[in-house]
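Thread: quick sanity check before group meeting

JM: Hey all, I'm pulling together slides for Thursday and realized we never actually wrote out the predicted structure for the chain we discussed last week. Dropping the sequence here so it's in one place. If anyone has concerns about the input, flag it before I start.
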Amino acid sequence: MSVEGLIDISSDTSTRPTKGMYDAMVRAKVGDEQKRADPTVNALCERVAEILGKEAAVFLPSGVMCNLIGILVQCDRGDVVLTDNTAHVLTMEGGAPAAIGGVMMHSLPGDRGIFSSADVEAAISTSPKKNVARTGLISIEQTSNRGGGSIWPLETIHEISQVAAKKGVPMHMDGARMMNASVASGVLPRDYAAEFDTTWIDLSKGLGCPVGAVFAGPGDLIEEAWRWKHRLGGAMRQAGVLAAAGLYALDNHVDRLAEDHDNARKLAAGLDNIPGVTSKWGVPDSNMVFLDVKDSKLSTAQWAEELLKQGVSIGIESDNELRAVTHLDVNSEGINIVLNTMSAICSSA
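JM (edit): ok, ran it. Output follows.
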C-alpha cells in the first residue's frame, strides 16, 4: 500500500522515488537495452559490476528473476540448491527453481537465516552415483529477511566457501539487502561478493527505486543470463528510464541507509514501553524489526487493522509476529508516530 500520508513500514519495497530520482529518470538517455544499446542501462551494469567486483552484470526486472537466473545458469535439472530453511528463494518465490528449472531446494537449519560450514559439509553431495542428486549450488541471503535483517559474517562466508571449493560447488548470494549489510558492517559490497560466483543487488528496496535489480558474475555466466532473461520475458527495451533511478540511488541513497538502521533501533527500543510487545531479535542488525505480540491483548491481525486505521501499515509475519521495515520514506518522527500510535492502541485494548 502506498497512500499519501500513510506511514508504511510493511516493507522497504514501498519506497517511492524522490524528486531528484524522478528528475534523473526524466533526463535519461535511452535505447534498446535488449540490443545492449541503452547507454544508461549499460552504465548501470558497468557500475554495479565494479561495485561487486565482478566481470559483468545484467539489469533485470526483479530480485526473484535474479535468483532464478543465478540457479538456472549454474545448475542442471535434478540438481539441488542448499540454502537456509527461511531463505526467500525457498519460501517466497513460488517454487520457481523447481517449476522452471527442475531444480530442487534442500533447506539447512540456520540460526536467524545463517547456516554453518558444518551444515554444508553434512548436506553437500557430489556423489558419482547415478541415483543420487548432486548439489549444484549453495545460496545465501544477505541480509536474511526472516532472520530479522541479520548479517552474514565474512568469516562464516569464507568457511562455507572453502567447503564449496573443495567439493567443486559454486556459490550464489541473494544480495537483496547487501547494501544494508555493507553500510551496517562497514564491509565493502565487493568483499561480501568476492567468494560468490554470482550475486545481485536490489534497487527497489532500501535504495528507493521503483523497480529493478542487477545480477553480476563472470562474463560467460552473464552471457547465459541474457539468454534466460529473454526466455523469462525480462526484456525491457528503453529501460534507461529505470536504470537512471538506479544510478541516482547508488550516488545518493547508499550512505543514508544508516538512517534506516538508526530508525529500526529506535523502534525496537521504543517497544519496551508497550506492554506485551517486544523486539524478537533484540537490537536490529539493519533495517528490520520483528515484533513479538503474543503477550499483548491483540492478535497480529488486530494490530495490523488498528494501526492501519491510524495511518500505519505494518506487515504480518505469523500468528505472533509483525514485521516492520524502515526505509527512506519513514523518518525519525515517523517512528515516534508509530510508537505513540501503538501505545494508544494498547491502552485502549
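AS: nice. Residues 113 and 147 are 5 Å apart (CA to CA). The chain has two domains: 19-252, 256-348.
JM: adding both to the slides.
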